Amino acid sequence: MSRFVRACCVLSILLYFAGSALAANDDHPGLHAVFGQRSVTVTGLPPRAQAVVYSFQLRPLGFESVAERIYEVVSDEDGDGTVTIEKTEDIEQRSIWVIAELTSGKYVVASPPGFGLEVATIAPGTFRKSANDADRFVTRWAAADMLYVHPGLGARFAYSEDGAPRDADGHADGFLTLSLGDAAVVPNAGNGPLKFAPGGVLVAVDRLSMQVVAGRLTGADLEERP
């Protein structure tokens, strides 16, 4: 079994709540995740595959919590279809983990048991086009993270708040727009897709409620609607 720890990007913001930790509540089209105190073990990967890992956790800090965001790439180095992601701190119960394989697009969205993970399907009218391509994700959430993985092309990650500089519509108008072209390429995950396309995997997280939208895109998902 692979034991794998990589350097990761961690960003912190202040939010409210306090959490704890333990082991698996998930939505898993192809992969499965099991939680340890300081680890997440993912099974169902193709042999020697690479996968993107994204997590969003709330760590207690007095009467508030610090929101910790991580994204990285892990590898099944021994070819057994299993990867264990090890961390130096306990995994919070109030956390969301996404693992998506970079070639097949198999993925899992998971949280430790007791959290009450909510995963919704992609709603009609979620995407907008600039020029001829669907390259913008639109939500009514006030603050969101977005991970997009397209098999063979890599992965991109974006986050913003409504009206903030990274809100692609440029206004505090009740709609948050995340542009795929402005999104960061996940390190070691390919060049990164520049448009949403059928077969890609989208996962978005409401950073305030910790609700999740996830799914593999179809042509119908990408149709613009009023």
CATH architecture of the largest domain: Sandwich
What would the principal axes of the Cα set say about the shape? globular
Order of strands across the main sheet:
2-7-6-9-10-3
CATH topology of the largest domain: Immunoglobulin-like
In CATH's first tier, which class of the largest domain applies?
Answer: Mainly Beta
Helix fraction, binned, reads under 10%
Low-confidence stretches: 2-25
Number of domains: 2
- Fraction of residues in β-strands: over 45%
Give the biggest beta sheet.
6 strands, antiparallel
How many helical stretches? 0
**What string gives the helices and strands in order?**
EEEEEEEEEEEEEEEEEEE
- What is the straight-line distance between the termini? 49 Å
Gyration radius, in Å? 17 Å
Can you characterise this structure?
It contains no helices and 19 strands. It is mainly β. A hairpin with a 5-residue loop joins strand 18 (201-206) and strand 19 (212-216). The model is unreliable at 2-25 (pLDDT under 50). The strands form four sheets. The protein has a six-stranded antiparallel beta sheet with strand order 2-7-6-9-10-3, with no helix packed on it. A six-stranded mixed beta sheet has the order 11-19-18-14-15-17, with no helix packed on it. The termini are far apart. Helices cover 0% and strands 48% of the residues. The chain folds into two domains: 2-111, Immunoglobulin-like, CATH 2.60.40; 119-216, no CATH class. The radius of gyration is 17 Å and the shape is globular.
Key words describing this protein structure:
2 domains; 226 residues; Immunoglobulin-like; mainly beta; 19 strands; 0% helix; six-stranded mixed sheet
